[in-house]
Design a protein that fits this description.
three-stranded antiparallel beta sheet, 3 domains, 12 helices, alpha+beta
Length: 565
């Protein structure tokens, strides 16, 4: 080997050790930098030189590449854990929110209010003619209806909070996708030819993908040119240097408002089962919407069951005019048709309309036949008018689709024996109006005159039959509620919610521990150890010193040769 070759060996050693010292120093400088991955200087021997029969001799060392220490499999598991933890925290947040809204363990919860309402009818059964007790029944009913409406509003507010959170998180995720696409372009430009890695840019991209994992469960595929494709499920949202974007679509229908996650580029549907966005969709569709439906179902059955009994009973006095509390959409459509939109089912049957002369007490009874398959509300009103004794009253349909009955001066109206359910369905002589939790209310006519409150049946003075039947509804099995009572249904749904809430609390804790464990493993692989880097720096320093001494030795040899010459 020539003197020049020997000097080249020393030069390569000095340059390599200098670079390695700089890498170690950079690691120590970024020991506390979030998202930084420890870098390692990879060295390899230079190509050896053939020197004849003796064989090959080395020509020094070369710095092959400066690489990041990254476990891609562990990185993927960590991102999945980040998505799971954020999803669990969202589940915990909104399940606890619904549980707090219902507040079932307080003295003013819905179960307690229902019990107080039905108990007031028990008191009315004991004192059916007591005006004060009648007023208490009306107050309890109004309080229960108000509590249901307010609870419905609070449930809807939780759903509105979810919708707002969805809008904010989707916009944030869309912005992150744009940033990842931009960093992809920068990495591809910086790594052209593949001779080196843009480690700082790659760290930045990993941080962005980790942040994106908080919102969406993503998977990654790295391309040969260094670009990273991002997928949600099997659908790409970032391809090389282009973001396809995500957006939130809101669709309004007769059944309510639905929201969905879409790819901005082509409108295709995305289904993320984890991360904040996936959990928000889950809470909207599997917690809040069912909770609202449960409340609507309870209010609907409460109104119908109470009205079913009340509409066939009589109060201390009858009506001079009565208007149904429930409207139909099309008064000319058959009562059983969808176009009529009668809120409760009507069967083929009949009910009795009683017209009483207030001064003489003489009562006429009219049997009204109801066939929902062939009869419209207009036809029902016409039949009632024609069947009523001449000069005693008439029936009509209001412009907004309600059945209205008017008694002539000196007459009163009352009802009984309804086998069709038409009176309860149309809200005639009803205690409650409305068909869901947002619309339930006590009949204004009864509020104004509690003597209209039906407590008896058969027009028997002092009868308490209707009041007893309504009081018994609290524990009555209802087919529409799966054989449970009104109170039992609500308590079972609330208990199910409590079980899910407890499970969500446990899951939030466990997913946090999993994430912390995986991040600790990642730190063991990619984190910077000051002690280790200090040792590496001492080693590289010794290498540099040895290379410098080697060059000095070659220089002395060269000087000796020159002296001889």
């Amino acid at each position: 080997m020539s003197i020049n070759g020997a000097l080249q060996i020393g030069q390569s050693a000095i340059l390599a050790s200098q670079a390695a010292i700089q890498v170690a120093g950079n690691n120590m400088a970024n020991a506390a930098t979030p998202g930084y991955h420890r870098q390692v200087a990879r060295m390899s021997p230079s190509r050896p030189e053939y020197i004849g029969r003796a064989g090959f001799v080395g020509t020094g060392v070369q710095l092959q590449r400066i690489v990041r220490t990254v476990d891609t499999a562990l990185q993927g598991r960590t991102r999945a854990a980040i998505a799971d933890q954020n999803a669990a925290e969202i589940d915990q947040r909104f399940l606890n929110a619904i549980e707090a809204v219902r507040n079932e363990l307080s003295e003013q919860d819905l179960s307690s209010r229902m019990s107080a309402f039905f108990n007031s009818f028990s008191e009315l059964a004991n004192n059916p003619n007591d005006e004060a007790v009648r007023t208490v029944v009306v107050q309890q009913g109004s309080g229960l209806a108000t509590a249901i409406r307010e609870l419905r509003t609070e449930h809807a507010n939780v759903r509105l909070e979810i919708d707002r959170a969805l809008g904010a998180t989707v916009r944030t995720a869309d912005g992150l996708l744009d940033q990842i696409a931009e960093v992809n372009r920068q990495i591809v430009d910086a790594e052209q030819g593949g001779s080196s890695d843009a480690n700082a840019l790659r760290d930045r991209r990993d941080e962005l993908v980790n942040e994106l994992s908080q919102y969406l469960e993503v998977s990654t595929v790295e391309q040969p040119n260094g670009a990273l494709d991002i997928h949600v499920g099997s659908i790409p949202v970032v391809l090389a240097g282009e973001s396809r974007g995500v957006t939130l679509r809101t669709d309004a229908s007769a059944n309510g408002t639905t929201v969905s996650l879409r790819v901005k580029a082509d409108g295709s549907s995305l289904n993320s089962e984890s991360g904040q966005i996936g959990a928000l969709f889950t809470q909207r569709t599997e917690t809040v919407d069912p909770a609202i439906n449960d409340l609507d179902t309870l209010a609907r059955e409460l109104a119908f069951q109470v009205n079913r009994v009340h509409s066939q009973g009589q109060g201390v006095r009858g009506y001079t005019t009565v208007t149904g509390l429930n409207r139909v959409r099309d008064a000319s459509a058959n009562l059983g048709a969808d176009a009529a939109e009668v809120p409760f089912p009507i069967r083929n049957g009949s009910f009795e309309l009683h017209v009483t002369n207030a001064s003489t007490g003489i009562r006429s009874t009219v049997l009204v036949q109801v066939d929902p398959a062939t009869m419209s509300l207009n036809q029902l009103a016409a039949q009632i008018s024609s069947a009523m004794p001449a000069g005693t009253g008439s029936a009509s349909v209001t412009p907004d689709g309600a059945l209205k009955l008017d008694a002539s001066s000196g007459y009163e109206l009352s009802f009984s024996n309804d086998s069709s359910g038409a009176l309860a369905a149309l809200g005639v002589n009803a205690f409650f109006g409305g068909s869901d939790a947002s619309s339930i209310s006590v009949n204004a006519a009864i509020i104004d005159n509690p003597r209209l409150l039906a407590s008896g049946r058969g027009h028997v003075a002092g009868s308490n039959a209707a009041a007893l039947d309504i009081a018994g509804l609290e524990d009555l099995s209802v087919d529409a509620l799966g054989g449970r009572s009104l109170r039992g249904y609500w308590q079972s749904r609330t208990t199910d919610l409590a079980v899910r809430t407890q499970a969500a609390n446990t899951k939030a804790d466990s997913t946090r521990l999993v994430r912390e464990s995986l991040e600790a493993q990642g730190q063991a692989t990619s984190g910077v150890s000051i002690d280790e880097e200090s040792i590496n720096m001492l080693s590289y320093q010794r290498q540099f010193q040895a290379a410098a001494r080697y060059i000095a030795t070659i220089d002395e040899t060269l000087q000796t040769l020159l002296t001889i010459v």
